[in-house]
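REQUEST ID: PR-0412
SUBMITTED BY: lab tech R.K.
PRIORITY: routine
TASK: structure prediction, single protein chain
INPUT:
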Amino acid sequence: MNDQNFSVEPATLDHLELLLELEQQCFTADRLSRRSMRRFLLSEQSVFMVALHQNRCIGYLLIVFHRGTRLARLYSIAVNPEWRGQGVARQMMGVGEQEAQHRGALYFRLEVNNTNINAIKLYESLGFKKFGVLQDYYDDHSDALRMQKRIRYPDRDSVHTIIPWYRQSTQFSCGPAALMMAMAGLSPDYRPSQTEELQLWREATTIFMTSGHGGCHPLGLALAAKRRGLNAEVWLNQRQPIFVDSVRNESKKAIIELVHHDFVQQSEEANIQINYENINQTTLIEACNQGAVPIVLISTYRMDRKKAPHWVVISGYDEQCFYMHDPDPDEKHQDLFDCQYLPITHQDFEPMSSFGSNRLRTAIILSAP
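STATUS: complete
OUTPUT:
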């Protein structure tokens, strides 16, 4: 055998049985099910490649893409034991990286068992660097190394504040989770907690949002931050009450309006600067350079096809991208650890940071006193 007598090509449903057979040969745990395999073969958010030798499946590679970002993640790779050491994995990784670049990905990430020395050496030889450890990651409770390779290089290194990641504990508390991440980045001694998360939500909520509990108002979050000793400056591109169109009931609309006006009055009394204009990317970049941390409201449509408002933290930038901490991972694709320093190109960020038919744009820039 050698690395010249097999081909690497896109996998189709015609390969499903061969792929499942290979999965059984290669793994005793963490196996992809038939349902998952079929879903990935049909998904527009994945690249599925198969290595073939004389109509026999000797390897496969599966890459998934985090919707709305320029991040590619190696979800799974398998090589028939008889073909290991013959360059199959290396060739599939090369083809996979080309496909990721073609789709506009800026980073290629993966997890690998920390005991899999041969695989780690392969990834290192391909330019991947270790940047984290996931404890108790696999079904057998072993740890995983996180590795990353930048596959499109900006002209300069990214600039960001070291911000601990915090996962929101409810469906409606992205604002408090984002605020706690920012506070932890600005104050190393600060420790986020669920109790604090819920307290912040109570301070900042609009009471109602769509069919459920209310999201957080930018002025409510700014007031909560100032009570905790931080400086907060708000950008809001409209003076009328926000989020009113998210509910149909007139009594709910009236309550949202009342909460909005109350937050405005409290902010004026607290001397919080409110800029009634669109925040631009230059302002965000300047804030990062000065060690401040912006929190920005985005629309999740480009990430999950749901038109929902969602608070995220801007954790850095470079000449091509902003990077963000997202407190709400997409569990469907198990992207629990791909929510830190997510690359969003400047071009993609512009429409992403506009919400609703009124094109609401709002952000809070937090800084240490």
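NOTES: The longest strand covers residues 56-65.
REVIEWED BY: pending
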